[in-house]
Amino acid sequence: MAPAAKVRVAINGYGTIGKRVADAVAKQPDMVLAGVAKTRPSFEAVRAVEKGYPLFVAGTGRAAEFEAVGLKVAGTLPDLLGRADIVVDATPDDVGLANRAIYAQRGIRAIFQGGEDADIAEASFSALANYAACRGKRSLRVVSCNTTGIARAVSVVEPRWGVASWEATLVRRAADPAESSRGPVNGILPHFHIPSHHGPDVRTVYPDLPIVTTALVVPTTLMHVHANHVRLRTAPKDVAEVIRAFRETPRFHLFAPWERVDGTPQAMEYARDRGIGLNDMIENVVWEAGVHLEGRELRFFQAIHQESIVVPENIDAIRAMLDLAPDGPTSVTRTDRALGIPAPR
Ligand code: NAD
Q1: Would you say the pTM of this structure is higher than 0.85?
Q2: What is the pLDDT of residues 15-48, one digit of tens each?
Q3: Whose CA is closest to 290, among 299, 280, 282, 281?
Q4: Pocket flag, ligand 1, residue 90 (CB < 6 Å)
Q5: Strand, coil or helix: 187
Q6: From ligand 1's centre to the CA of 13, what distance in Å?
Q7: pLDDT tens-digit profile of 161-219?
Q8: Domain ranges, ordered by start, for the chain
Q9: In terms of CATH, what superfamily is 145-304?
Q10: Per CATH, which fold does 7-143+310-339 belong to?
C-alpha cells in the first residue's frame, strides 16, 4: 500500500510562535512544511532560508526588499496558500482577522492564535481539553499561552475530582525575550479588570468551568506563573494522588524538591540544557513542593513558557481538523514523540 500523502502546512507570520510551529511541522511524520510567509527581511528570514524552508512574501511586503539583501523568495502568500492544505496564521494580534478573508476566499482551512478574538474561528482548541469536539472543523483558534496552561491543568483536575470553583492569579511576563519595544518594565502592574480575560477564555474550551482569574504583569521575560486555588467536589486521598495525576499526564513536567528548581530561572535553565525546540519548556511546569491539599482545597503553582506552550497544540489542531489521528491522545503522543517531549512517567 502506498504511504498516505503528507499534509502540506503553510505558516503565515514567522515570529515567536510561527517559527516554532514551522520547526514542529517539519518534524512531524505526517506533515510537510509548504513554506513560511513574512512581510519583511530579518534575521528570522535568514534562518528560514538556512533551514531550507521556502520563503514567501506576505501582507504589504515586497519581494524586491528581500532580494535586495540576497534572500530568495518563492512567491507571495497566495502562491504559498496554493501549495498547502492548511494554513497556520501566527501573525500579530488582530492581523489574523484581516487574513481570515484571504483564507476563506481560497477555501483553505486555517488555524489562528490566541491573540485573536474567539469568534474568528468555528471553535477554540486545546488538545487535552476538546480535541474530539474540534475534529473536521474548517477553522480553529488555538487558545493563548496562559489559557492553554490553565486548560491543561483543568484536564487533569476536573475529570478526577470535579471543580466547585477555580481561582487563578496569573503573574505574567512583561515581554518576550526578543521584544525590546515592550521593556524594560520596572514595576508590578495589576490588571484592574476582574476577571482578567483569561477566565472567560478558558470557558471557550471548558464552557461550564466556574473559574475566576486575576492577573498582574511583572518585569521578567522568562515565563508566566499561575497561583491556583481549586475547591474540589471530592477529596483526593492525599497530595501524592494529585502529584501522580499531574505526572501521568502528557505535557506536564514536575520538579521534585531535590532537583533544586526554586523558580522560573532554573526551569528555563533546565530547558536550555535539554535543548528541545528553541531550548523551550513546552510542558506546564509544576513544582511538587508547591502542591498543597487540605481536604477539598487544592492549591498549586505552575509555570508556563509563553513562547512555546502552544506549539504542540497547533500540531494537534492540524490533526484534528484533517482527521489525521484516531483520537486526541494518539495525536498528542505522536506530536510529542516527534518533538522529543518526554512521555509521562
Ligand atoms: P511576533 O510579533 O513575534 O510574530 C509575528 C510575525 O508576523 C512577525 O514576524 C511579523 O513581522 C509578522 N507579520 C506582521 N504582519 C504580518 C502579515 N500581515 N502577514 C504575515 N506576517 C506578518 O508575534 P507572536 O508572539 O509570534 O504572536 C503571534 C500570535 O500568537 C498572536 O496572536 C499572539 O497573541 C499569539 N501568542 C503569542 C504568544 C507569545 O508569548 N509570544 C504566546 C501564545 C500565543
Answers
A1: yes
A2: 999 999 999 999 999 999 999 999 999 999 999 9
A3: 299
A4: yes
A5: coil
A6: 6
A7: 999 999 999 999 999 999 999 988 899 999 999 999 999 999 999 999 999 999 999 99
A8: 7-143+310-339, 145-304
A9: Dihydrodipicolinate Reductase; domain 2 (3.30.360.10)
A10: Rossmann fold (3.40.50)
